[in-house]
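Chapter summary example.
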Amino acid sequence: MFSKALLYLRTVRRMRTGMVFARLRGRRRLSERAFAGEHPLRMPRITIPELDLDPRYLARFDAEALFKGEFLLINERRKVDLGTWDVPGASHLWSFNLHYFEWGVALAARWRETGEGRCIDGYKGLVRSWMLACPYPEGDAWHPYTISLRLLNWLIAIDLFGGALQGDGAFFAEMRESMYRQYKHLLANQETHLRANHWWENLKTLAIASAAFGESDVHARVMRRLEGQLNEQVLPDGVHFERSLMYHKLVLEGMLRVYVASTQLGFALPGNFMPKAKSMLDAMASLERGMGKTPFFNDSADGVAKECCPLAAACSRLLGMDADDTKTAFPDAGYYKLYGGDVAVMVDAGEPGPSYMLGHAHCDCLSFELSYRGEPVVVNSGTYAYQSGLRPYFRSTAAHNTCVVDGEEQLECWGEHRVGRGYRLLGAAFGGNSVLASVGLPGGKTLSRSIELCDGLLRVADESGDGAHLESHIHSPRNASPSVEATSGCEMTRGVGKYSRQLSRLEECRDVVVAGKGSVSYTIDAGKEVS
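The structure predicted for these 531 residues follows.
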């Protein structure tokens, strides 16, 4: 009991005062008077073909199964009772994805391609059943985050259906009134207790919805907050401050939606909008260059955000911005890229995220990922699920390609998204082909790591004082088995571990542990494999 209370105290101490008050206030329910009257809607056409019609994106969903009430979401297929929109046994995250209505974009895209009338009828039926089964303001359906995503996904689907939904006047009037109700509830329940990407998603949607519903005073307030959050959340080096490339890409997509809406609805963007978009674009392109996937630092997975290449293509067409993928140092985020021949390496030598919101942080400081000819060879273990007994492992130090000192975790990760005490970054130096950094662990010990890429070989050396027991972990996908050679005096063991490249997908990976007292070092030859 004392331990849990202490964790709560250490976690709350990280939060800003306003976050604590917002948490205590809880969710507000608006009276029916807030929704009274007529609410004309100027429909913005916010479809981005590079993103919404990308076959790889649409393949995440099963449009055909929707006609049978089956939903394929985050790699799990489940039958949904459309009378209740409740799925017993589904995780909280799966339920959220159900209420995002992102799957509806796939149905609208199918109609756009085939002209099948049942796509329109099916979509209308699903929207109607949702409105009947999810009364205001109960359950996940009315969570501010699900509203933030659903409203935009409804707008995208309406756009893709090309006026067919508006052609049914009675249906579209119901849908429009539901959208207004969702918008007003979101406005009153912005996630200022969480801030970070959640509040960004709220503000992005409010910026578009307030302009679409013609509420200019609300729109002006929202845009001022959006401008402030761009300054806060996008670091000077262009990386999103939660240090997750998955959420980085989601925020960049949101910026593109706001831009398209501004051209449709005629509102001005804040002065920092374009510079922040360019810096995020360059950071994304540079950090993913040569990696072959989303780098798995903090909560990150493939198959959630839109992919790097379509995002870069959309930025080029819409914003006139071409990605600069040559950047190698991101000192504000603590990320660095090393290149040598066919090898690309990404190193984390920074803070885990904003100190007041570490819900997506992992114990991955001084970790790295390595790819050879664009194929992942050394990987962090990924992010399997937010609501799972495996959640602690996937956030742990041992799940990343870093070093465990005397069994201590870098961060006190607990619950689904909480962190108590954490490490202190003592220093980091980038030398073009090398990174040298050190951290102070919560228990008082220090760890220093040197990573150098030379002639296609990656040399890693760890050191900690007082003869501490060190275990340096190296994880590889099953289809990769790089040559790892430990220096004299180190013990090396091989085993099988857990790996998740997409949410809800669990597979085995190859694990190597190099152990020793006080110091350990090893060399990786990505081009040479061992059986």
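To summarize the output: The chain is about 35% helix and 20% strand.
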